Backbone:
């Protein structure tokens, strides 16, 4: 959600990962925060992938297809 600060977003991801229902659900961070440290924080919080804006839609679709076993 755009109104959340990066730390709040990390907390949401961590809370989702603690729930059995969402433990293995892919979470993709699509963000304007583009540094390597930003990506590391996203992944450390539990995101599956960190994508910088603007992003290549075909690369994203390929990644999602791979998650769905279609890649």
Residues:
């Amino acid at each position: 959600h755009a109104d959340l600060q990066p730390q709040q977003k990390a907390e949401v991801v961590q809370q989702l990962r603690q729930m059995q229902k969402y433990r293995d659900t892919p979470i993709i961070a699509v963000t304007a925060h583009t540094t390597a440290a930003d990506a590391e924080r996203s992944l450390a919080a539990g995101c599956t992938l960190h994508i910088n804006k603007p992003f290549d839609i075909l690369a994203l679709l390929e990644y999602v297809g791979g998650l769905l076993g279609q890649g």
